[in-house]
Specification:
The complex is a heterodimer.
Chain A: H1 3-15, H2 26-37, H3 45-54, E1 58-67, E2 70-78, E3 91-97, E4 106-109, H4 113-127, H5 133-142, E5 147-156, E6 159-167, E7 173-179
Antiparallel strand pairs in A: 1-2, 1-5, 2-3, 3-4, 5-6, 6-7
Chain B: H1 2-6, E1 8-11, H2 36-39, H3 41-45, H4 59-62, H5 67-73, H6 81-88, E2 94-103, E3 106-114, E4 127-132, E5 142-145, H7 149-164, H8 169-179, E6 183-192, E7 195-203, E8 209-215
Antiparallel strand pairs in B: 1-8, 2-3, 2-6, 3-4, 4-5, 6-7, 7-8
The chains are: A alpha+beta, B alpha+beta.
């Protein structure tokens, strides 16, 4: 490893609070089916982030998920961006089949409690960090541990962070927590 | 940076902070224009350049035009905001914002709560409001668990910011009163320059009101 590459790695480690969580948790067990299906996706998370922006919003989370027997690519967005609080924003999801050649997401504006509370909290967390989902995904990608399939803002030790999930080459799921202060 | 995190800012209406709700009109009678309210503002705006700050709910701001009538009604309250918050924080509930307000011309005390405390996020919590007449000997609020878009999003925002901060509402009120004596009639979390803060509205003994921004230390 060259000095340059070692420096890069050191910088990455300094910029990120990395928590690699071993598999075996309840969440990961429920992820088992998802992890086995992920290779069938023809689309990356970044495509969903870009689609939210193309739709005029700012992405506040994104994930590949297995639901109703299908693999979906989904992103939550805030139509009025990060400058408007949840109450004054429009919170929506772009979601579509991840296994087809052309990802054609449907847009749903949240009206129900489950999704409104989740999206409101995600928006608020993204408003309290300078880190973007794109940067978090890029940092996780740079670790070369596998393919990123989820990027969701969270609270870690009272601070905003982004929980990025990665499928490793051997099909395991790991979590990388990117500190909200990383840039 | 530490001094910045610890300071209190007393800010004028419509100065420096951009609200989520409608700002009061420049000539609003509720608008204070004290020298004191301008003092700390420069330190707010000289923070190193960052992306545009996220707006905050600023619900107090949207109600500014009502504050003259509200201030006149406040002395009839039999309990203060801190006591109302303490009463609301029973059985594991935590207050996430609180205010006196006029409802159909009558004084009301409203406390938003996260019934399962602040360890659980909004999605897994129960977000509710306790509101009732504070002019009676005992405050006997009615509880409403939020089910509508406006209140769910507002309460989720408040809860998330309280989770992000390091202060209870009681501590926020105490800190604000140490800076500006008076009667606190509203405390709500907000965001300024990517950090959680609390807007505290205080009715001054000599008349008028002032907004104190308490930084959360987060």
């Amino acid at each position: 490893m060259t000095l340059f590459r070692m420096g890069q790695l050191r910088g990455l480690m300094l910029g990120c609070a990395v928590a690699l969580l071993a598999s075996g948790t309840r969440a990961e067990n429920s992820d088992a089916e998802l992890l086995s299906r992920l290779p069938k996706s023809k689309h990356a998370l970044q495509e969903a982030l870009d689609a939210v922006r193309t739709a005029g919003g700012v992405p506040i989370s994104a994930k590949l998920e297995f639901e109703d027997g299908k693999l979906w690519l989904s992103a939550y967005g805030a139509k009025s961006g990060l400058d408007k609080c949840a109450e004054k924003n429009e919170l929506f999801e772009l979601k579509g089949d991840a296994t087809v050649e052309k990802w054609s997401p449907e847009r749903e504006v949240f009206q129900d409690k489950e999704h409104l509370t989740r999206a409101s909290a995600q928006l608020t967390l993204m408003q309290t960090t300078q880190l973007t989902l794109d940067i978090a995904v890029a940092k996780a990608d740079a670790m070369k541990k596998g393919s990123v399939y989820s990027a969701i803002p969270t609270l870690k030790d009272g601070k905003t962070a982004i929980n990025v999930r990665i499928r490793t080459a051997n099909g395991q799921g790991i979590a990388v927590v990117i500190d909200g202060k990383a840039q | 940076m530490k001094h910045w995190m610890n300071r209190l800012n007393v800010a004028a209406w419509g100065v420096a902070l951009v609200g989520c709700a409608t700002e009061p009109a420049p000539n609003s009678p509720a608008q204070p224009a004290t020298a004191q309210s301008v003092v700390a503002v420069p330190s707010v705006v000289t923070v190193p350049a960052e992306p545009p700050p996220a707006e905050h709910t600023g619900e107090a701001e949207s109600k500014a035009h009502d504050d003259t009538a509200l201030l006149a009604a406040l002395p009839s309250a039999k309990l203060d905001l801190a006591r109302g918050i303490a009463q609301a924080e029973t059985q594991g509930a935590r207050a996430i914002s609180a205010k006196f307000e006029l409802e159909d011309g009558k004084l009301s005390l409203s406390v938003y709560t996260a019934k399962k405390g602040i360890e659980l996020d909004a999605e897994h919590n129960v977000l509710a409001e306790l509101s009732g007449d504070p002019t009676q000997a005992a405050w006997q609020p009615k509880e409403e668990v939020f089910a509508d878009v406006k209140h769910i999003t507002r309460a989720s925002y408040h809860l998330t910011l309280v989770q992000r901060s390091k202060m209870t509402l009681a501590a926020v009120i105490a800190k604000a009163l140490a800076q500006q004596p008076g009667q606190v009639y509203s405390v709500e979390p907000a965001i300024h320059e990517r950090s959680p803060i609390f807007h505290v509205m205080i009715a001054k003994a000599g008349g008028g009101q002032v907004k104190v921004d308490v930084e959360s230390g987060a």
